[in-house]
Amino acid sequence: MPAITASMVAELRAKTDAPMMECKKALTEADGDAARAEEILRVKLGSKASKAASRITAEGVVAAAVDGATGALVEVNCETDFVSKNESFLAFTQAAAQLVAAHNPADLAALSALPLAQDGFGPTVEDVRKGLIGKIGENMAVRRFKRYAGGGKLASYLHGTRIGVLVEFTGDDVAAKDVAMHVAAMKPKALATSDVAAELIEVERRVAAEKAAEDSAKAVAEGKAAQSPEIVAKRVEGSVQKFLKEVSLLNQTFVKNDKQTVEQMLKEKATKVAGFTLYVVGEGIEKKVDDFAAEVAAQVAAAKAQ
């Protein structure tokens, strides 16, 4: 079994807000697997183990560019919060968003090859990126982008520079803007329950099953009757269905009116949402801040190898 280091424990605690000793026990039980340890904590501690799951260590910004029915959302990462406020870095990110919207690059390598001149650097996006690294003294990389074109109107919302949303819709502009703000606040995983990723459902089902098993074992230890397999199965399925409603946009309670769901609000406004994209800076990068430079360097190396 790998050694459970203090940094591993601290990182898991930062994600879950669970007590240090519980984090260490979970990591030990999971043989050092952080994702599995988080699941173990959720079984033992319930929602307390996920309330800080949105905390992100990576820095950078999200930018949006919308022109009619065409638009793009882009995330560009850097190493420190200080650089994420740099005017040249912000201008580079906005330029990248505009280029994605205008030219529809197939991937990050294609975006890097598009023409761009900024701060005396160029003639491509990649040349400007390299030039800014030398000028600012910190590594940076375009991490991801999403483009919409021709499928309907677009509504965008930026919460500062760290959260960005694009919503594709038909109908009322104000309702769509409200949905974009709702997405930024509630962070749904999918548009409808049928769109939730199978792997997310499997994790939730596994956590619910382990929680039910633990509760049943506790009941037996207290001299109570164990729940039947049928009841346990219903509990698990109930937990999964509750999760699906909580993470699907249309089923979420609308942030501006807790008496209706987003779907009900949209129907009232004769508006339909075809899809959305939510970017939170650094989302999915589960590393310490001092490890992020290595990730950016790996992204850059991978792009060069293509």
Could you walk me through the main structural features you see in this protein, from its secondary elements to its overall organization?
With 306 residues, the chain is α+β, with helices and mostly antiparallel strands. The protein is built from 11 helices and 6 strands. The chain has a 3-stranded antiparallel beta sheet with strand order 1-2-3. β1 and β2 form a beta hairpin. α2 crosses α3, α3 crosses α8 and α4 packs antiparallel against α6. The chain is flat and about 75 Å long.
Short characterization:
By secondary structure, the protein is of the alpha+beta class. The protein has helices spanning 6-16, 20-29, 34-45, 87-103, 108-112, 125-137, 173-186, 198-221, 229-247, 262-268, 292-305, and strands spanning 59-67, 70-78, 140-149, 153-159, 163-170, 272-280.
